[in-house]
Amino acid sequence: MSDIDLLVKRSRGGDPRAVARLISLVENDSPELPDVMAALVAHAGTAAVVGITGSPGVGKSTMTSALVSAYRAERKRVGVLAVDPSSPFTGGALLGDRVRMQEHAMDREVYIRSMATRGHLGGLAAATPQAVRVLDAAGCEVILIETVGVGQSEIEIAALADTTIVLLAPGMGDGIQAAKAGILEVGDVFGVNKADHDGAEHVVRDLKAMTRMVERAAGDWRQPIVSTVASAGRGIDEMMEAITKHREWLTDSGELGRRRRRRVRDEIEALALTTLRQRFSDLHGDDRLDTLADRVLLGELNPYSAAEEIVATVS
Amino acid sequence: MSDIDLLVKRSRGGDPRAVARLISLVENDSPELPDVMAALVAHAGTAAVVGITGSPGVGKSTMTSALVSAYRAERKRVGVLAVDPSSPFTGGALLGDRVRMQEHAMDREVYIRSMATRGHLGGLAAATPQAVRVLDAAGCEVILIETVGVGQSEIEIAALADTTIVLLAPGMGDGIQAAKAGILEVGDVFGVNKADHDGAEHVVRDLKAMTRMVERAAGDWRQPIVSTVASAGRGIDEMMEAITKHREWLTDSGELGRRRRRRVRDEIEALALTTLRQRFSDLHGDDRLDTLADRVLLGELNPYSAAEEIVATVS
Predict the structure, then answer these.
(1) Which of residues 228-257 of B touch A (CB under 8 A)?
(2) ipTM value of the model?
């Protein structure tokens, strides 16, 4: 049995160190990844993948921790991926997360992992589904992906999750702003956390007004808005119920299959584009590009024809 | 004679409307661009390309206008490209530029054009060298490219220009900051504009200290620091002299040939990558990606093998 097969076997048996080792291989874009994925692919595909996103400070980690407790009360094995798309290291914020996650640290049925994706050539789009596949094959019934909603990352996470929770909080000065910036489209469930703070009803009201404006056909999902105080465990039952309802809708409507297919398509595309980019940079080692550039400079060749020759070369 | 040939002939004859029309074709990534470039490529390659970059408010447009006047005094035909990498429109700032450029507006030997590159699939890296080629073939002996130094754009512009002027000014609170953020590497000539304002000597001193720390071999270019008050025409002679000296060094050292080759290489690569991306999005129309994704979901195929099949398909 090869090292990889052994590692996969141990991870499927629930060995947390084997799971951690496989996710490190994903994170570092290891040359062994194709073999790892080939060994895992037949054992994955059943976990429910829930994304949790929102601006810094809305309470994503507290909510994640509260949801882990709720799933553990149902005796489910849970995986948590804290994805930091920009940091090459596990940043300071994630240290804080780990403290909040400490109550689950000794629970062998909970895998918690913060992951940087910068080392991965395919970026977030390839690394995250691969890490999800590792946890899925390791028997996690639920996988929570937590990522900060800045720039494009919340849209990318939404493309990776079956259910995306967008978390807001009052007093962030960005309740409506955030909602305007594309968050309406990515959220399957909205959470208004810190609901005991001033202005929470205001955020709920704004969200309600905005979700009402979205045109929907009969049978479309209607995004629920759940008020929570995650730090005190308030509203978590309602949040769990909203996630469960969304999952039922996903299954009944056939949307689950479409989302999972799209996720794999995105992963394949990211890997294919990475392969082609790699071939481009390999070209820098030889003189074909230089020769073509010189012919363009001499006026013998136009740059589009040169590009066609390069495309033919890397193909 | 085809429309394109006629347009190219008229632009080479100095018809500003033909030049403007060709740059619009570049900006909009017209399907006729390969024919345009094929017709132009034999007539381009002699213009001196000077990039001017710096933070907002340092006086880039005023400097550009002053340099245009200086080149016109030498009876040179001048092209000016104001490149705005992010805006899909000619933004508000460029309206201001146009006012400042008004003194040259009636001069038929000066082509001024603001250009947005977002519409171009290859982005800045492909659109700018193509626009430079249009102006070059139209007989411009000098082409000034003005771009705001934010994010990556100043590095991209430096890769496109023969000579890059990095402009700083006192009181921007970012003299040293800007210089630290990669500007030391991209500047061939530093201009400290608004030299009559408080703190200008401070900026000059900091720049001197920093350029001294860069290790150089014998024969390497030593970046001059020129103090200017562009709005009053002060220091412009010195700036012109620095540009001329840099050009002599480029020619004598062989660096000019290397930079031009690199520019064309970058253009070819950007076009090739665009072609491949295009083939990817064409795939979305058929069901090959879906079929592969379904096989991965069924556990029959690993995503890397699927990616290889896609690479083979687009090749």
Answers:
(1) none
(2) 0.78
